[in-house]
TrEMBL record:
The protein's name: Uncharacterized protein
Superkingdom of the source species: Eukaryota
Amino acid sequence: MKVLAILYNGFKAAKAEPRLLGTVENELGLRAYLESQGHEYIVTSSKEGPDSDFQKHIADTDILITTPFHPGYLTKELMAKAKNLKVCVTAGVGSDHVDLNAAVERKIQVLEVSGSNVVSVAEQVMMSILLLVRNFVPAHEQAISGNWQVSDIARNAFDLEGKVVGTLGAGRIGYRVLQRLVPFNTKELLYFDYKGLPKEAEQAVGARRVEDLKEFVSQCDVVTVNAPLHEGTKGLINKDLLQHFKPGAWLVNTARGAICNADDVAAAVKSGQLRGYAGDVWNVQPAPADHPWRSMRNPLGGGNGMTPHYSGTTLDAQTRYAEGTKQILQNYFEGKPQDPGNVIVGVGEWLPDQKCLEVLMIRCW
Ligand code: NAP
């Protein structure tokens, strides 16, 4: 079979650090395995436009491997050209770069390594909440630029203790964030999700479900977004919803950039309506140099905690998603069933409700 992987270039770093498995250079550690099984393995970072390796090779590829960090966007049109394509594997979590409706129609399975980087992201969420609330970035900028003006930093620095923190999406990552927030003695932990958590899971973290989204955001000092990108979440956080946030709230989004309207968020930070915004995901990746999230600042010069998309690609996470990708391939080649938690689209079907329940059960409590 022909296996095509779209990965990001690691250049010198990847040569020096073999654990950077998700790079073109280190090929998810799959070459020896795939070639020993008689498969052809093409690895490239070239993914944009009709002359890209992605668009050239997709025509006769059987299995496509992509990552959310350097997404190869598999549109409906591109899928129509992919005559042999049977399986798309996301090395990581979040398969919104694949047109999932078209995958159902064309009976192409979509699998991801669920859970592989959920701890990595939950830790990033904690870091992002703290750096916003404590006004870390302007303080660090003073440290490295030779300045020392404590009042300029302290006038917009707060404690997390006593604040209301809410997660939009209480799945694998959102729940882990709630768990990690418990020792911070917040005033309250809230969540907004389609489904309520099992009672014992809710009680273990002392979280309260709010069923109306506007009501939810209006009660939070900090909102963290941990829901997938789909038709119901694209642009969900926009000018209209931002008006329902507490004035001066903080917003953290490590889920997907397109869940937020980029211009509306930048304007809210600029006006101080949001005290800050942090995250590692962007609506276009790599983000253009003039993306508004690169330069936005609140009226007191802080409130920007953006980074490139890396929270789910720590070296620990790369080991897990490389191993998980190999396991998915092995299951496929050997005709074994896939872990139900890894199935986003089965053969010609959305994840059935039955499996959703199973997915719920294998979450972290
Ligand atoms: P998960 O276990 O599937 O949890 C997501 C939760 O959000 C589910 O409970 C889901 O409910 C819920 N949800 C869906 N739409 C919602 C909406 N409109 N409002 C409220 N809740 C909603 O996924 P996860 O592992 O926690 O990952 C969450 C997302 O994080 C991924 O989809 C991915 O986009 C992102 N992520 C980012 C990185 C990174 O490196 N930055 C790494 C990993 C993941 P249902 O199950 O009923 O749909």
